[in-house]
């Protein structure tokens, strides 16, 4: 998560109507309101736990004047289209004293593991870990923060975690910046799947260079928010290009080993919307979810206010072999 917006969610709100978006959406863009009624939710990650879906996402402090208190919202759905706020994971302990954000969730043996970033510490932000049996009440990892990168190409910061099972290991993709804190890039780490995912378990696989760095014109100086999908022997990673509202848009890359990545397209896979649409300022921070029936959904954030508000939306991803394509609205 980058560049905190100017304003932002308690009761659910839907986005204003606009021209038809480029991708067919599941339901209506959704957000939680702040105390002043400003809708703001971002950074979605979705799992299935039993007969319900849970979405984890970033919420700002309820009071717009508050400087601290960014936290994780938890929403519940039974159809991936309508969502109800089910809980909040608020800051706890020294590592999260200024806030937490950008969660990435995975279910392993019936337990929800949540990887999220500390917030508000600049180059000192790092990845933390918590777990839950019910998906709402979490136990913090005593070794938090559990991961930060050490390569000389980066500043030692880690945000925007996402994880995926890869054989006998859990891969963790993260965003970081160069030592000057200007360019945002992606790296990958791994922990044994039978480990506790604590601080001692992780090995940085991107010690010498980033896994992916901005190169294309639309990516500007930022690649962040990795989102994994497993497709047979191949991994697909959706990512956000451009900092928030520059505009931020979504691309994807593919890999056979989780370390070396090749872009799937030179143009945005999911661009920001046309002027007047709900996501004209950005289509950003993807979260990928594969359901039990094998269908894939891409969750993302968008707004038409240059970041003063933010909504969450989803579209189904279809596959031509291992190449994703969007459902186009008519």
UniProtKB/TrEMBL annotation:
<dbReference type="GO" id="GO:0016787">
    <property type="term" value="F:hydrolase activity"/>
</dbReference>
<comment type="similarity">
    <text>Belongs to the glycosyl hydrolase 43 family.</text>
</comment>
<dbReference type="Pfam" id="PF04616">
    <property type="entry name" value="Glyco_hydro_43"/>
</dbReference>
<keyword id="KW-0378">Hydrolase</keyword>
<dbReference type="InterPro" id="IPR023296">
    <property type="entry name" value="Glyco_hydro_beta-prop_sf"/>
</dbReference>
<dbReference type="InterPro" id="IPR006710">
    <property type="entry name" value="Glyco_hydro_43"/>
</dbReference>
<keyword id="KW-0326">Glycosidase</keyword>
<feature type="compositionally biased region" description="Low complexity">
    <location>
        <begin position="1"/>
        <end position="21"/>
    </location>
</feature>
<feature type="region of interest" description="Disordered">
    <location>
        <begin position="1"/>
        <end position="23"/>
    </location>
</feature>
<protein>
    <submittedName>
        <fullName>Glycoside hydrolase</fullName>
    </submittedName>
</protein>
């Amino acid at each position: 998560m980058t560049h905190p917006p100017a304003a932002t969610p308690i009761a659910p709100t839907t986005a204003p109507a606009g021209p038809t978006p480029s991708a067919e959406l599941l339901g209506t863009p959704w957000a939680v309101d702040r105390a002043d009624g400003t809708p703001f939710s971002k950074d979605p990650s979705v799992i299935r736990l039993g007969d319900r879906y849970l979405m984890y996402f970033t919420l700002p402090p309820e009071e717009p004047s508050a400087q601290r208190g960014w936290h994780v919202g938890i929403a519940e759905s039974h159809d991936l289209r309508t969502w109800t706020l089910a809980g909040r994971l608020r800051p706890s302990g020294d590592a999260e004293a200024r806030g937490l954000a950008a969660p990435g969730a995975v279910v392993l043996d019936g337990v929800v593991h949540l990887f999220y970033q500390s917030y508000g510490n600049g180059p000192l932000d790092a990845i933390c870990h918590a777990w839950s049996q019910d998906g709402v009440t979490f136990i913090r990892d005593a070794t938090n923060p559990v991961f930060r990168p050490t390569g000389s190409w980066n500043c030692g910061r880690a945000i925007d975690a996402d994880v995926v099972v890869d054989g006998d290991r859990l891969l963790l993709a993260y965003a970081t910046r160069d030592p000057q804190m200007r360019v945002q890039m992606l790296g990958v780490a791994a922990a044994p799947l039978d480990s506790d995912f604590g601080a001692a378990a992780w090995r940085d696989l991107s010690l010498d260079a980033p896994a992916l760095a901005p190169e294309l014109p639309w990516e500007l100086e930022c690649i962040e928010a990795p989102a994994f999908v497993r497709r047979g022997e191949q991994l697909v990673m959706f990512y956000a290009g451009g900092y928030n509202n520059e505009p931020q848009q979504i691309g994807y890359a593919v890999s056979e080993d989780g370390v070396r990545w090749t872009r799937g397209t030179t143009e945005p896979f999911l661009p920001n919307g046309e002027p007047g649409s709900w996501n004209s300022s950005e289509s950003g921070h993807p979260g990928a979810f594969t359901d039990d029936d094998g269908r894939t959904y891409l969750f993302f954030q968008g707004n038409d206010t240059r970041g003063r508000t933010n909504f969450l939306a989803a579209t189904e991803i279809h596959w031509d072999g291992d190449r994703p394509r969007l459902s186009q609205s008519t």
